[in-house]
Design goal:
The protein has 312 residues and is α/β, with parallel strands linked by helices. Helix content is 35%, strand content 28%. The chain has two domains: 6-224, P-loop containing nucleotide triphosphate hydrolases (Rossmann fold), CATH 3.40.50; 229-292, 2-Layer Sandwich (Alpha-Beta Plaits). It has helices at residues 44-51, 73-77, 95-104, 112-121, 137-149, 167-182, 194-200, 218-227, 239-248, 272-281, 296-305, and strands at 6-15, 18-28, 33-37, 59-64, 67-68, 80-83, 155-158, 186-191, 203-208, 211-217, 230-237, 252-255, 262-267, 285-292. The strands form three sheets. Strands 6-7-8-3-9-10 form a six-stranded mixed sheet, sandwiched between helices. The structure holds adenosine-5'-diphosphate and magnesium ion (MG). This is Sugar ABC transporter ATPase.
Length: 312
């Protein structure tokens, strides 16, 4: 296992008497997209601002590729590309002029080829010679990503990057991040939207009132979901025969209590095809079969409830 790209150990931020961040620890691996999920006021921005030292932390340790930000800030931050506030651009300059201005401030010489490459990556090639004041929010956001990428960082940090983007813009951002992750770049990203985190991240931490209550691993969550028993609504005729067969086969079901032959069967999804075959071979007519999958919110509550917390 290679060293983590970002390591946060026992981060605490106190303002006045209030602990805004309460002993948070997590790490982000190479090529991993890691999310911070939580409602407004949970502490996501405070965590991110502490990492890039826009604010000072009260205690704890932040290490970027082995460099502690307290003792080796310059070396640590060289590895980071971040959009923490809304990216600021000169509106009367073109996208390209903005990027070149930013590149000229970099300690390394940035070649035109490198700029071209980044512009293509964020799909701004057509608009790059237009003035930024004519850009949509999505285009500004992509220009922000381009700016963050200029010095080839190993770690990208974005605070609520898709706020205000339309679904198409969100998808575009997601695909870009996944492509960068495949090239070995790590991404730390915050959001208050569960669906977004599920689609974008490999893992995400749930932050509630300054505490990290759970780390969801999408690989494991998907696996767990596939193996879970689900409820299937089945409309089977005739009623009596269907009831008898399901009982004989020791299927876990309940029957609608209004006298109609609607069954609610508990089964793992992988057992459904063989059940259907058996029913058909016994001359049962199947008028409907439908999975009652849990909504994301239900699953989210499941994740958070056994920690005693709640969102909002
Ligand atoms: N400078 C500050 N002074 C006092 N309270 C603050 C300050 N900055 C943030 N907070 C409080 O800390 C909590 C976390 O804020 P923040 O990190 O912005 O949350 P998020 O980004 O998850 O919405 C909130 O309750 C907020 O009011
Ligand atoms: Mg915030």
């Amino acid at each position: 296992m290679t060293q983590p790209v970002l390591e946060i150990n026992h981060l605490v931020k106190q303002i006045g008497a209030k602990q805004i961040i309460k002993d948070i620890s997590f790490s982000v691996n190479e090529g991993e997209i890691f999310g911070l999920l939580g409602p407004n006021g949970a502490g996501k921005t405070t965590i991110i601002r502490s990492i890039v030292k826009l604010i000072s932390k009260t205690s704890g340790e932040i290490i970027i590729l082995g460099k502690n930000i307290d003792t080796s800030y310059t070396e640590a931050i060289q590895q980071v590309g971040a959009i923490v506030e809304n990216p600021e651009f000169y509106p009367y300059m073109t996208g390209l002029q903005n990027l070149k201005t930013f590149a000229s401030m970099s300690r390394n010489k940035i070649s035109n080829e490198r700029l071209e490459e980044i512009i293509q990556l964020v799909h701004l090639d057509k608009a790059i010679n237009n003035k930024v004041k004519t850009y949509s929010l999505g285009m500004r956001q992509r220009l922000g990503v381009a700016q963050a990428l200029i010095h080839e960082p190993k770690l990208l940090i974005f605070d609520e990057p898709t706020n205000g983007l339309d679904p198409e813009g969100m998808k575009e951002f997601r695909l870009q991040m996944k492509m960068l992750a495949r090239q070995g770049v790590s991404v730390l990203v915050s959001s208050h939207l569960l669906t977004e985190m599920e689609q974008l991240c490999d893992r995400f931490a749930i932050i509630e009132r300054g505490e990290l209550t759970h780390i969801a691993d999408m690989k494991q969550e998907n696996l767990a979901e596939a193996e879970q028993l689900q409820t299937f609504h089945m409309h089977l005729e005739p009623l009596e025969l269907s009831r008898e067969l399901l009982t004989n086969w020791k299927i876990d079901y309940i029957l609608a209590d209004n006298g109609t032959s609607h069954f609610f069967v508990k089964s793992s999804p992988s057992d459904i095809p063989s059940l259907v075959k058996k029913l058909v071979s016994e001359d049962v007519s199947i008028f409907a079969i439908e999975a009652h999958t849990k909504t994301l919110e239900e699953r989210f509550l499941e994740i958070t409830k056994h920690n005693g917390g709640s969102m909002e």
